[in-house]
Amino acid sequence: MKQAGKSRRGDGDRISSLPDCLIHLIMSFLTAQKAVQTCVLSKRWKNLWTTLPFLDFDLWKFKSDGQSDYSESEDGGPPDKFDKFRDFVCMTLLLRKASDLHTFHLSCTEMIEWPEYNMFIRSWLLYALNHNPQVLKIDFTLEGSVALATFTCASLVDASFSYFPQARNIKVINLPCLRRLHLKRVTVTRGFVEKLFCGCPMLELFHLKNCYRELYTINSQSLKYLKAESCNSDFRFKATEKEIVLINAPNLLSFCDIICLNFMGPKILLKMPSLTSANIRFERSIYGSSYDGKSNILMGLSNVQNLKLSGDGIKVLLETEMPNCSEFPNLKDLSVDSLCLSCHCDLLASFLNHCPNLEKLSLYYFGLYCKSIQLH
């Protein structure tokens, strides 16, 4: 029994015998606060956190003497927890050894409302940018020199920016290694997108969520995944009928977006010959204008293998474009939502005639599942 007990104790400390790089990988799943707390485990762990290349500072997850509320202090100032979080981040970065970062995550949106913390927050981000991070996740507004440093950080491979309404003010974008970009609650302008794809020659994934955007053109040889999720589009910006809004991405594999059928203005062209999966919601114009079909959107999806169509604009899209639409020779799986079958059965049948190799058809009505049909 004693031998068994010793064996169990020995097995329990196997992690400490691992090399630093593997222990760092294990610690990467912890917040910075919990990673620092591992220093009490043993002498082996005492200084491991000081060379940790993964730093996750999250105000919501930060524990301060068992308190997790955000109530203001008695004198009407910011919550005491904010000061303790500030002190912890400053202490961690001060004592950390000078080594490159892999991942830096900073989430402290609420602190931005208090000007006394802005200097600290900017200094934390500049610290990260000066240590060659590959992954950067932040959720506060970038301004001035901090914004310039962020969008010219040559080491970045994966970046996530949230609550960032100042994208229109970014003058220069030079991210030669960036492959994945996630934007949430960001105002995306034409100029920003143009500079983005010029300055990010390796960008493969572009994900927008809850963003406010203008009509924009994308030209990219590297882009493989384009997704716009719960985004609002502003078509009030002056766009003439002579303009062309183009998504030219020859290597794009997956496309998810909302397209408004309000084309009193520009013509939209989709050039995505490698596309295999598309999920598009078509919305009718809020201005009541009719769609003349000059964009011929379906033609740009002709090589797709998996296609999901939804929205109250499907009817007018199919009615307008089907007469001049080519076949979908690669389409295997088709999902259609929000098209009334009792009223538009012939319209759907006409579309199916253009899909000679279709294997599965799934029908929905405004999100409610109706029927799935195996055709082969």
TrEMBL record:
Domain of life, per lineage: Eukaryota
Gene3D superfamilies in the cross-refs: 1.20.1280.50, Ribonuclease Inhibitor
Domain F-box residue range list: 15-55
SUPFAM superfamilies: F-box domain, L domain-like
Residue ranges constituting the F-box/LRR-repeat protein 15/At3g58940/PEG3-like LRR domain according to the UniProt record: 145-254
Pfam families xrefs: F-box, LRR_At5g56370
Protein name as catalogued: F-box domain-containing protein
